[in-house]
Amino acid sequence: MKWKQMPLGPLQTNCYIVYKENGAGVVIDPGGDAVKLKQWLKEKEITVQAILLTHAHFDHIGAVEAVRTAFHAPVYVHTNEAAWLSDPQLNGSGLFSGIEQISAGKADNYLFGEGPVEIGDFECQVYETPGHSPGSVSFYFPKDGVVFSGDVLFSGGVGRTDLPGGEHGTLMKSIHDKLLSLPDETIVANGHGSVTTIGQEKEDNPFINGFGW
Questions:
Q1: Residue ranges of the alpha helices (H) in the chain?
Q2: What total number of domains does the chain contain?
């Protein structure tokens, strides 16, 4: 399995394309710049089998409809954010001046609970990691040693909790109970900035160290 980080949209949110040698792929958090994203997928001859959303904030969903339409790919989001795709007040695009309001159609599939999931040619572990938003999830690929964590855990930081549905205590519990239980060498492919590892964040992240790590 291979994966590519591609910053997209007004906040340069990290979209990830996970793909295999046979061309099968999934797109995680297509935040915008639909033309650029679609062009890369077509040049690489990627067959998009699904669009996976770590959560439904506007900067993670801006190109959802364009990718879904172009590749006939089903969209997956946690059930706690089922209404967010179509509601700019919930997804945040209606809360900031100067930001284009983002609206997409309903998801095709809803995630609920935790455990292994098979999507096309891919298998991963879904973890519920709320706190940044109520439906935040992380997609862990144990064979490849990478977790796509959205805006839960960053290099040297953690997700903001001042948007609707955010709660700092819940976020920290998600990080400690779910993400920090992964092997130290696990790559954390997050929503903004550079990738990191679980071990690196245990050692250097002040938010985590402040809680006894």
A1: 34-43, 58-61, 64-71, 88-91, 168-177, 198-204, 206-209
A2: 1
